[in-house]
From TrEMBL, chain A:
Transmembrane portions of the chain: 133-151, 214-232, 306-327, 380-400, 526-548, 569-590, 626-650
GO annotation terms (biological process): detection of mechanical stimulus involved in sensory perception of sound; vestibular reflex
UniProt-recorded name of the protein: Transmembrane channel-like protein
Topology in the lipid bilayer: Multi-pass membrane protein
Keyword annotations: Membrane, Transmembrane, Transmembrane helix
Pfam families in UniProt: TMC
Originating organism: Chrysochloris asiatica (Cape golden mole)
GO CC annotation: plasma membrane
UniProt KW Transmembrane keyword: yes
Predominant subcellular localization, coarse grouping: membrane
UniProtKB/TrEMBL annotation, chain B:
Domain EF-hand residues, every copy: 95-130
Superkingdom of origin organism: Eukaryota
GO process annotations (BP): calcium ion homeostasis; integrin-mediated signaling pathway
Keywords annotated in UniProt: Calcium, Integrin, Magnesium, Metal-binding, Repeat
GO terms of molecular function: calcium ion binding; magnesium ion binding
Record-given protein name: Calcium and integrin-binding family member 3 isoform X2
PROSITE patterns registered for this protein in UniProt: EF_HAND_1, EF_HAND_2
A Pfam family: EF-hand_7
Length: 782, 138
């Protein structure tokens, strides 16, 4: 095709005009078509199953073609602009590609995760990938909070020590720098930018007139908004990747055969494990296949399951009550003096211990139930989820009690503060001529700032959780591995194969722990802006620590079954936890009044009043009217109803689409069945005929051996059988096989012409090509 | 990146010595089918086995890998070979033949006693973890 264009140009060039102007319309259209085709080829090059060398040459050819002729498509002056646009588009594509490569290189910990993947398989590695993703989300949240709330207050707000809320009270001052006090997040840390109480309620700060209270509120809301958006986006991309799971049960053996080997495995121990687990899984499926339902004592099974569930519910209620009791006790302790370290940290210790010991307890009880491992895993996950949820909400309830208690004290403290200041300014014994210095901030009586107290509780819980999990890994995995490895030489039984042996990495426990920690961060970040920063540090250290622990002390799972759709399951759990952690924060924002002397909302009636204030003062008037109009319940309730209707409509649309999908699939299956049926019918009919003639020819063969007559009438039948054989060999190989030997016997008495054909070997490949209406054709000679 | 004839034998791919299909992989991706790969073949292999390869491409090459006798169909003998390699000979002969029968039952759409590319693709594209297991991370 290039030759055509070259000829065209060469025929035109003697006239001295530019060849481009003389390309006729049809040539232009044809070139355009070719360019489009080549472009399409370039984009779909990845999908083609060609070898790499061929792909590269085709790609280069296509790209050269597009480059050469794209410029020719524009006309006149527009052509230069067109060429310029194309150039820019190409540069943009190249830039995007380089940027993508750069982004891939920047992904942290890729080699570590690949190492773990090759040793332990893809399911353990998926936990670390999840951890890495969580780290990214927390990093973004930290950037948001740090940049928009902490930095402005630290740089542009009042410094430490200038106003009461930012100063350590006089009573606590001497102990404020002690490590034990700092570890409990009291002392100087409590009066720093890490907690809610530090922030001033000035409407604008600094020369930029930065509206800090508004920023604080909006950042708090956007933390939840961003988390929600990113979790849903991740779920959506997961569902797009996976196909519909309609007929998965029909392909158990095929899937086991073709998808059970994990090509990522690069370690011989893991490979051994994998071989063993594949063998076990095949044997299990074979046993399932061969055995009929063994309804062995279903009543006993049911009774045991009910018993197990009852025991577990008892455990859950027990743990909930224990937490409530401990939190109440800690409130009493805080009123006492000289409390020991244990009494101070009792709540956190109890919660962490429960989280550590209850899951194995549940697993032991679940051994009564005798479920298939996949179902058992789901039950276990559900129970651990219920445990963590119960613990968290009991903790919150107890915390709410404390908050209400603090709020009820506020009035009395307000009075005390008022009277103290009054007395200070009006006390006798002071010269009236010199203006009195204001009361030192450390001496002003302080309200008990409930928001900071809540923030401190969450902070302490996070830190203690982290410490407990690290200690668990160190003791439960590392020390156990050391013990098994070194004591094995001098122990009665084989420690590695027998009781303690090496630990396996508990994927579900770790993932749930991660999810619930994130829930606590979401709950606490409104009251302690520094919590997200602590969490970032925690995830960072956790990544390195757990990578080391897994490689040094864990062994790959002995029994591997696919929890394959679990990726979206964990995301769904994260979404649920996000909503559950949004609820307490929303409740406190909406219904509790902020403390009167600490935090960015002090002095307001409710925290969300800051929005109204901003709208009134900072926005133009008509916007205020619009917002007031929008906030009218008469408008909001119909909007909510409309959203419900939209959800119902979309739900029914998606259901009908799923139904249509299933019907189409059934139709395809039916068409395939019909095709196969027709083919098999044709084949059977042919075989039947050849079987009849076969019977006839075998009888004749025996007769032929006795007499020499009747060769001519019989000569047609073997050739007919041969032809019919050619038409339908694949349908019933057994019939073909029986036909063959008899025809070999027949040619002994046949005329030479027919004999030539009958001694030819039957065509093995592509028998269909000789069929369909060409019944008189002979099989092609090989 | 010219086309130097750097030959990679399958002994050099040490990290994958435990893969039961290592010889098949080398044979499928090598130019002359005998297991010796040039740089282009090597690139091809990793491109197909990478995360970004499309499903259909992976299914096509998976079919070629599991087709031991290179006749464009996965027949019963190919299936037997696959099972034996996957279980390293731990299953008895009747168990092996039972498994092969079941697979043919499930996946053979046109009932010709062997799996064509179409049958294989229909089946494998429904597998939930095909993409994650047929994958080598670099």
């Amino acid at each position: 095709m290039w030759k055509r264009l070259e000829k065209h140009r060469s025929s035109k060039s003697p006239s001295g005009m530019s060849s481009r102007e003389y390309l006729s319309e049809e040539e232009l259209a044809w070139i355009q078509e070719q360019v489009e085709e080549k472009k399409k080829l370039i984009t779909t090059m990845r999908n083609k199953p060609w070898p790499m060398a061929k792909k590269l040459t085709e790609l280069r050819e296509a790209q050269a073609f597009v480059e050469k002729y794209e410029g020719a498509l524009g006309k006149g002056k527009g052509q230069q602009l067109y060429a310029y646009r194309m150039l820019m588009a190409k540069k943009w594509v190249k830039f995007k590609r380089d940027f993508d490569n750069f982004k891939t290189q920047c992904i942290p910990w890729e080699m570590k995760i690949k190492d773990i993947e090759s040793h332990f398989g893809s399911s353990v590695a998926s936990y670390f990938i999840f951890l890495r993703w969580m780290y990214g989300v927390n990093l973004v949240l930290f950037g948001l909070i740090f940049g928009l709330v902490i930095i402005p207050e630290v740089l542009m707000g009042m410094p430490y020590g200038s106003i009461p809320r930012k100063t350590v009270p006089r009573a606590e001052e001497e102990k404020a720098m002690d490590f034990s006090v700092l570890w409990d997040f009291e002392g100087y840390i409590k009066y720093s930018a890490l907690f809610y109480g530090y922030y001033n309620d000035q409407r604008t700060i600094g020369w930029l007139r930065y509206r800090l209270p508004m920023a604080y509120f909006m950042v708090g809301v956007s933390v939840f908004g961003y988390s929600l958006m990113i979790v849903i986006r991740s779920m959506a991309s997961n569902t797009q990747g996976s196909t519909s799971d309609g007929e998965n049960d029909n392909f158990t053996f095929s899937f086991k055969m073709f998808t059970s080997w994990d090509y990522l495995i690069g370690n011989s121990e893991t490979a051994d494990n994998k071989y063993a687990s594949i063998t076990t899984s095949f044997k299990e499926s074979i046993v399932d296949e061969q055995e009929s339902n063994k309804e062995e004592n279903i009543h006993l099974t049911r009774f045991l399951r009910v018993l197990a569930n009852f025991l577990i519910i008892c455990c859950l209620c027990g743990s909930g009550y224990l937490i409530y009791f401990v939190v109440k006790r800690s409130q009493e302790f805080s009123k006492m003096q000289n409390i020991s370290w244990y009494e101070r940290n009792e709540v956190e210790i109890v919660m962490s211990l429960l989280g550590m010991f209850c899951p194995p307890l549940f697993e032991t009880i679940a051994a009564l139930e005798n479920y298939h491992p996949r179902i058992g895993l789901k039950w276990q996950l559900g129970r651990i989820f219920a445990l963590f949820l119960g613990n968290l909400y009991t903790f919150l309830l107890a915390l709410m009690d404390e908050v209400h208690h603090k709020l009820s004290n506020e009035d009395t403290i307000k009075n005390i503060t008022h009277w103290t200041l009054f007395n200070y300014y009006n006390s006798s014994g002071w010269n009236d001529s010199v203006p009195r210095p204001p009361l030192h901030p450390a001496d002003v009586p302080r309200g008990s700032c409930w928001e900071t107290a809540v923030g401190i509780e969450f902070m302490r819980l996070t830190v203690s959780d982290m410490l407990v999990s690290y200690i668990t890994i160190l003791l439960g995995d590392f020390l156990r591995a050391c013990f098994v490895r070194f004591m094995n030489y001098c122990w009665c039984w084989d420690l590695e194969a027998g009781f303690p042996s090496y630990a396996e990495f508990d994927i579900s426990g770790n993932v749930l722990g991660l999810i619930f920690n994130q829930g606590m961060i979401w709950m606490g970040s409104f009251y302690a802006p520094g919590l997200v920063g602590i969490n970032v540090l925690r995830l960072l250290t956790s990544m390195y620590f757990q990578c080391w622990a897994v490689m040094s002390s864990n062994v790959p799972h002995a029994r591997v079954f696919k929890a394959s759709r679990s990726n979206n399951f964990y995301m769904g759990l994260l979404l649920l936890v996000l909503f559950l952690s949004l609820l307490p924060v929303a409740y406190t924002i909406m219904s509790l009044p902020p403390s009167f002397d600490c935090g960015p909302f002090s002095g307001k009636n409710r925290m969300y009043d800051v929005i109204q204030e901003t709208v009134e003062n900072d926005f133009p008037n008509f916007l205020g009217k619009i917002f007031a109009f929008l906030a009218n319940p008469g408008l909001i309730i119909p909007a909510i109803l409309l959203m419900f209707l939209a959800i119902y409509y979309l739900n029914s649309v998606s259901k009908s689409l799923a139904r249509a999908n299933a019907q189409l699939r059934k139709k395809i299956q039916a068409l395939r069945d019909v095709e196969k049926f027709h083919k098999s019918v044709k084949g059977r009919a042919i075989v039947k005929d050849s079987g009849d003639t076969l019977k006839g020819s075998s009888k004749n063969a025996t007769q032929l051996q006795l007499t020499e007559e009747g060769t001519t009438p019989h000569s047609t039948s073997p050739s007919q059988t041969l032809e019919k054989k050619a038409q339908g060999p694949g349908t019933s190989s057994s019939a073909g096989r029986t036909v063959l030997p008899t025809t070999r016997n027949v040619p002994v008495s046949q005329p030479p012409g027919v004999r030539l054909n009958s001694s030819q070997p039957l065509p093995q490949t592509h028998p269909w090509r000789s069929t369909s209406g060409k019944s008189t054709r002979r099989p092609p000679p090989h | 990146m010219g086309n130097k004839q750097t030959v990679f034998t399958d002994e050099q791919l040490e990290a994958y010595q435990d893969n039961p299909f290592r010889q098949r992989i080398a044979q499928v991706f090598s130019e002359d089918g005998d297991g010796h790969m040039t740089l282009d073949n090597f690139l091809d292999m990793f491109s197909v086995m990478s995360e970004m390869a499309p499903r259909d491409l992976k299914a096509y090459y998976a079919f070629k890998i599991y087709d031991f006798n290179n006749d464009d169909y996965i027949c019963a003998w190919d299936l037997e070979q696959t099972v034996t390699r996957l279980t390293r000979g731990e299953l008895s002969a009747e168990e092996v033949s039972l498994v092969c029968e079941k697979v043919l039952d499930e996946a053979d759409g046109d009932h010709d006693g062997r799996l064509s590319l179409e049958d294989f693709q229909n089946m494998i594209l429904r597998a939930p973890d095909f993409l994650s297991t047929f994958h080598i991370r670099i």
